[in-house]
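User: Reviewer 2 asked us to show a designed sequence for the structure in our supplementary figure. I'm pasting the structure tokens here. Could you produce the per-position amino acids so we can include them in the response letter?
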């Protein structure tokens, strides 16, 4: 197990051999930096921590979850994408579970494919401040609050399953 937190300022790779990665305090991928996470890696978050992406994130086949031995919705804060420069984000085949707000997209473009977004206490997917999220062949379910909060642009298509959720939309959700 490798404990992580703070800032990532250079291109960084997390490999399966170092898994699980344990986020003990908020972790930010800064503008100009990138985090690549190898398939099979598990990233566990302590209470009230989150991953903030201002640079780039490439993650395929990764599980983002609570560090608790008995996880519950709301254990950690979620993934927050905040880049204004449209940094590279590739998310395919991931599981994102047990956060308060699973995925928060502000002012950037994020695409998810073959991803399960589930077991959240507040919001499964939130898009705001000019953000855009494309969700393809993914599942959003078992959220205690709002499944999708859209104050930007959201496109969900190609066999995306959304169950047990509410949608709050103010803008161009399709």
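Assistant: Here is a per-position design you can include in the supplement:
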């Amino acid at each position: 197990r490798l404990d992580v937190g703070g800032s990532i300022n250079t291109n960084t790779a997390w490999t399966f051999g170092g898994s699980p990665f344990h986020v003990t305090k908020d972790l930010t991928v800064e503008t100009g930096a990138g985090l690549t996470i190898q398939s099979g890696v598990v990233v566990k978050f302590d209470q009230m921590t989150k991953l903030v992406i201002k640079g780039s994130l490439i993650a395929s086949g990764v599980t983002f979850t609570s560090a608790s031995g008995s996880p519950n919705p709301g254990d950690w804060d979620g993934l927050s994408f905040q880049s204004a420069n449209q940094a590279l984000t590739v998310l395919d085949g991931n599981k994102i579970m047990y956060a308060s707000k699973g995925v928060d997209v502000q002012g950037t473009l994020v695409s998810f494919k073959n991803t399960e977004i589930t077991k959240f206490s507040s919001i499964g997917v939130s898009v705001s401040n000019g953000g855009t999220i494309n969700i393809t062949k993914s599942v959003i379910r078992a959220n205690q609050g709002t499944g999708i909060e859209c104050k930007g642009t959201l496109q969900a298509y190609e066999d995306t399953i959304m169950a047990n959720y509410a949608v709050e939309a103010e803008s161009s959700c399709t």
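For the response letter, you might also mention the following. The radius of gyration is 15 Å. The chain has a mean pLDDT of 86.
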